[in-house]
Amino acid sequence: MNVNLIMDASAIERALARMAHEIVERNPQTDTLAFVGIRTNGAPLARRLAGKVGAILSRELPTGELDITMHRDDLDLRDTPPAVGPSAIDFDVTGRTVVLVDDVLFTGRSIRAAMDELSDFGRAACLQLAVLVDRGHRELPIRADYVGKNVPTARQERVTVSLVEDAGKDEVVIEK
Amino acid sequence: MKKPKFTWQRKDLLGIQDLSAEEINHVLDTAAAFKQVGERNIKKVPSLRGKTLVNLFIEPSTRTRTSFELAATRLSADVVNIATSASSLVKGETLKDTALNLQALRADIIVIRHSAAGAAHFLSRFLKASIVNAGDGAHEHPTQALLDAFTIREKKGKIAGLKVTILGDILYSRVARSNIWLLTKLGAEVTLAGPSTLVPRVFERLGCRVVHDVEEAIREADVINLLRIQHERQRQTMFPSIGEYAAIFGLNKERFARTKPDAMIMHPGPINRGVEIDSDIADCGRSVILEQVTNGLAVRMAVLYLCSGGNPA
């Protein structure tokens, strides 16, 4: 198996810093801004982005996490039910501009599930999507508003994001 | 490397006796996720969309049947309720034929309550549908034990090492049997108490302490789970009178005052106020009786999701 490094710790850091500035630039009405990460890797990324945007705006921004398992569309295709965890959104979503955060954008099905689930918490005024890596091969009409890195891939290749919070190091690799 | 993830492999939940501690903990973890769904604006997820659940209750119940119905509805499944009085069982149809007919109607999950021990196990032997035992005679009531454990874990932070006293009619109680199996598997110290006719020493073989003095049973307890007298199952008089039972074994204010200050009071319902529990104690801050009902919904959502959420071949 061939493993190639596509982002190291400093590349991830710079990408997130740029995305934070893009988020501020795109949203002049910053008082309603909130971040929601898709578990598992989206959650720490959402906290980091919220931290960076909060530093620019000099205040704390509400941050939550979604576990999208209950909203997946492939439950019937699996032999055993995948483990579910609780979502944690302790602010009112209604009326907010919510930036959904995930590590890799691939088929778009996770994002569809996350959008469905988020609407169960309330009616956001506006939903935007931030991903660390966009690897293509969409199966649904979904696109990201903020992208850390566009990575052309073949369908069968695997993109793996490791983050300090879970894996002890920051890197993105592609396995062929 | 992370350790390999546990995966749930059962299509049926028949009892606690054959579950491993790992399986029990997986249900409790899953229930925590589903409890959170109940706190959202929209308390419904699409996990069981397109599936059909039949509540086959051959014995009366309001709490458990309603709880399963709401749990299934919140998972987006369709629900059909069948009560004994309205079913063909009164016309002489056997349980097996009733169940096969339900399966022919493409029921995916059958939740059964029956006065005969083993009814759920019996159905599971020939049905492809998932079978969930909602109480079989005096044998098992697994979802009640799971919701009790969920409540204890949520309130006390753990189960292992806790002293749990189950007080009342143990002999005729399926709640007691399921609780004993579950709590001992997870490392709690279980004490059973009540009249010697209803709490025979034979229960010591299940790994618990049997005590006939209420004061001794409740003094050290972290959790006190009270059970109602199951008049409908008793074939002979097991104690002189309800009044005497209440006087000797009921949790009244004097006895309550001598429990540990953080002892938690539980009851699976329906409660008989003034018999096994003083009315004020049932409503006090240390009583979690209504939280048990709320948690029951989350636990049943978890059980339905786990037994039928994948696509078992």
List the helices and strands and how they pair.
The complex is a heterodimer of chains A (176) and B (313).
Chain A: E1 3-7, H1 9-26, E2 33-38, H2 42-57, E3 63-66, E4 97-105, H3 109-121, E5 126-134, E6 146-150, E7 158-162, H4 164-167, E8 171-175
Helix pairs in contact in A: 1-2
Chain B: H1 21-37, E1 52-57, H2 63-74, E2 78-83, H3 95-104, E3 109-114, H4 119-124, E4 130-136, H5 142-156, E5 163-167, H6 174-185, E6 189-193, E7 209-211, H7 214-219, E8 223-226, H8 242-249, H9 253-257, E9 264-266, H10 279-282, H11 289-308
Parallel strand pairs in B: 1-2, 1-3, 3-4, 5-6, 5-8, 6-7, 8-9
Helix pairs in contact in B: 1-5, 1-11, 2-11, 5-6, 5-11
Structure notes:
The complex is a heterodimer of chains A (176) and B (313). With 176 residues, chain A is an alpha/beta fold. Chain A is 29% helix and 27% strand. Chain A has helices at residues 9-26, 42-57, 109-121, 164-167, and strands spanning 3-7, 33-38, 63-66, 97-105, 126-134, 146-150, 158-162, 171-175. In chain A, the strands form two sheets. In chain A, strands 3-2-4-5-6 form a five-stranded parallel β-sheet. A three-stranded antiparallel β-sheet of chain A has the order 1-8-7. In chain A, helix 1 packs across helix 2 (42-57). Chain B is built from eleven helices and nine strands. Chains A and B meet through helix 3 of A and helix 1 of B.
Shape of chain B: globular
Form type of chain A: globular
Radius of gyration of chain B: 19 Å
Q: Averaged pLDDT of chain B, please?
A: 92
Question: What gap, in angstroms, lies between the N and C termini of chain B?
Answer: 30 Å
Tally of extended strands of chain A? Answer: 8
Structural class, from helix and strand content of chain B?
A: alpha/beta
Query: What's the β-strand tally of chain B?
Result: 9
Class from secondary-structure proportions of chain A = alpha/beta
Low-confidence stretches of chain B: none
Helix and strand sequence of chain B: HEHEHEHEHEHEEHEHHEHH
Overall pLDDT metric of chain A? 95
Number of helices of chain B: 11
Q: Major sheet of chain B: size, sense and barrel closure?
A: 5 strands, parallel
Strand content of chain A: 25-35%
Tell me the radius of gyration of chain A.
Answer: 16 Å
Q: In what order do the strands lie side by side in the largest sheet of chain B? A: 7-6-5-8-9
Q: What are the segments of chain A in which pLDDT stays under 50 over at least 5 consecutive residues?
A: none
Please report the number of helical segments of chain A: 4
